[in-house]
Amino acid sequence: MSATKLLVLGIVHLSGGAHGYQVRSELQNWRAEIWAKIKPGSIYHALKKAAADGLLTEHAEPGNSGPERVLYRVTAQGRDEIVELVRDGLRRTHDPTMLDASIAMLPMLTRADAIAHINERVARLEAELVHQAKWREHPDRDIPEHVRDQAELWAGHARTELEWAKRLSKRLSEGAYTMADDPGSWRTAPDPLQMRF
């Protein structure tokens, strides 16, 4: 649910406000049903739950020759929740769906914040690999051989993820992406709700 919540809040925020159908369409364009395992019904549930929790506001709008539609906008509390979810997804290992959602919303963090949480992930992966290596050197005799092979598979995944995380941290340090504290980011762009015409 956290990945769905993060992506739904993030899409609404980055859109400046969106209807449920817009959120669903955007996530389908991102193919989130594959990498985040999001079902269409869970999108609408996440929108309603986030509104009930004060993370979104709801604004009824007349539909185009149809029923009323609800426009959702992210609240300040919702923006804070997005940032916390991205941080958590970056540092938490063994949750690839949440990692994918966090990478999709990475520009919600400042550059230093993103680097710090990715580096925390690096440290956790390194510690887990050390622990795994010790276990493989002296496995419990009662553990079947195929389970030890499974541990080798996990270690391979972890090594690949570790190298990827180090590269991402380096790229961010070198200025990749427009992050929350960069000119042109969601934080530095004028808020359409505050603009006067």
The oligomeric status of these chains comes to single chain
What is the H/E string?
HEHHHEEHHHH
What is the overall number of helices? 8
The rounded distance between the terminal residues' Cα atoms is 39 Å
Q: Approximately what portion of the residues adopt beta-strand conformation?
A: 5-15%
CATH architecture descriptor text of the largest domain: Orthogonal Bundle
Helix content: 55-70%
Order of adjacent strands in the largest pleated sheet: 1-3-2
Task: Domain count, please report it.
Answer: 2
Shape: elongated
| CATH fold type of the largest domain | Arc Repressor Mutant, subunit A
Task: Please give the CATH class of the largest domain.
Answer: Mainly Alpha
Give start-end ranges of low-pLDDT stretches.
Answer: 192-197
Q: Averaged pLDDT, please?
A: 89
**By CATH's scheme, which homologous superfamily of the largest domain applies?**
Winged helix-like DNA-binding domain superfamily/Winged helix DNA-binding domain
| Protein structure class | mainly alpha
Q: Could you give the count of β-strands?
A: 3
Q: Rg from C-alpha positions?
A: 20 Å
Organism: Glycomyces terrestris
Domain Transcription regulator PadR N-terminal: 9-82
Pfam families: PadR
InterPro entries: Metal_resp_DNA-bind_regulator, Tscrpt_reg_PadR_N, WH-like_DNA-bd_sf, WH_DNA-bd_sf
